[in-house]
Design brief:
alpha+beta, 17-stranded mixed beta sheet, 17 strands
């Protein structure tokens, strides 16, 4: 009995969760898997599968993502959760599924796909034609703790105070906590989108899909609620505060200062030692430096695969704005 290749059905997609568990040795949560594959506000996931008899042995999904590319909103796809049954590796399963998926992309005229591969799959992706755009820069800000070693506390307090003095624009209104992702987020995107060359379209529906189910660890703030011009989404983790997404008018330093200050105060109140913001591209670089964030290289790689009308503009990291909101949704 040979291996059959075909476009995946809903049943195949649901079965792929069990394949995920076998391939990665981690249990993907069913509720998250269903949300990831069937509730994406950008559209339906297009996936390709391989079976030998009733056994699912390979899976290659394409996750829809609406991007603003030089002012034009375009549907592209993210390659994530690609996997092959360990017993069928080196048998051409992955290569056949990849070719099938890429033929579909060419037929549909999709300009490019993108992804954030792990260290193992990065080499294979390069061989298949993907190009490395760049890596997410981890912007890290030490936060003075209420308790801890006296020397560390003193140094952090000096560091924090120095950059707070640099980053103190006048007449700054404190950011207000965002209790739900709604039309205020859409208003921010409308005001900010022209500042960005290549960026995922941010909307209330998108953020609700990504983070609305995690209100136990997710916090968010909005600047100028009466005329929204910025928001920030942060996650409390055992290792510190993680900024998942930030969107603000770059010309308005008061907005960015207000948003970052809200996150830092959360870190101080929870005893977190640092705030981390992983991001690709040059947006907010100056404001992050003034706010005391230090750029640390070596973050997750961002790759793209040109498919139709390839353009060098898509391969320049400086043209991108990508944060953790654009990465693969974790379901474990």
């Amino acid at each position: 009995m040979g291996i059959g290749y075909f476009q995946a059905s809903k049943t195949d997609i649901l079965d792929a969760r069990e394949l995920f568990n076998r391939v990665f040795g981690a249990s993907a949560l069913e509720a998250c898997w269903r949300r990831k594959y069937f509730e994406n506000p950008a559209g339906q996931v297009v996936a390709f599968a391989a079976r030998e008899g009733t056994r699912l042995v390979g899976f290659y999904p394409l996750h829809p993502a609406l991007f603003s590319i030089f002012g034009n909103e375009t549907l592209i796809y993210q390659s994530a959760d690609t996997m092959t049954d360990p017993a069928y590796r080196r048998g051409g399963v992955y290569g056949t599924l990849r070719k099938t998926a890429h033929l579909w992309l060419v037929k549909e005229g999709i300009p490019f796909t993108y992804g954030f591969p792990n260290i193992i799959s990065l080499a294979a992706n390069k061989r298949s034609g993907f190009e490395l755009v760049g890596r997410l820069t981890r912007w890290v800000k030490p936060v003075p703790a209420g308790e801890g070693e006296p020397l560390r506390k003193a140094l952090n307090s000096i560091f924090h105070g120095f950059f707070s003095a640099l980053n103190s624009p006048r007449d700054v209104k404190p950011a207000e906590e965002l209790d739900r992702f709604d039309e205020r987020v859409d208003a921010v995107w409308t005001r900010v989108k022209d500042d960005l060359r290549i960026a995922g379209v941010r909307s209330g529906a998108f953020l609700k899909w990504r983070y609305g189910h995690r209100d136990d660890v997710i916090s968010a703030w909005i600047s100028n609620p009466e005329r929204p011009d910025g928001y920030v989404v942060a996650e409390t983790t055992p290792k510190g505060i993680w900024i998942r997404d930030l969107l603000a008018a770059r010309a308005n330093g008061r907005t960015i200062h207000s948003l970052l200050s809200a996150v830092v105060e959360l870190a101080r109140s929870t005893g977190a030692r640092h705030v981390v913001f992983p991001v690709a591209g040059g947006a907010y670089r100056g404001r992050l430096l003034r706010a005391g964030f230090i750029p640390v290289p070596g973050g997750a790689p961002l790759i793209e695969f040109p498919r139709a009308n390839p353009s060098r503009e898509w391969r320049r990291a400086a043209n991108w704005y990508a944060s953790d909101a654009d990465r693969d949704m974790e379901c474990v």
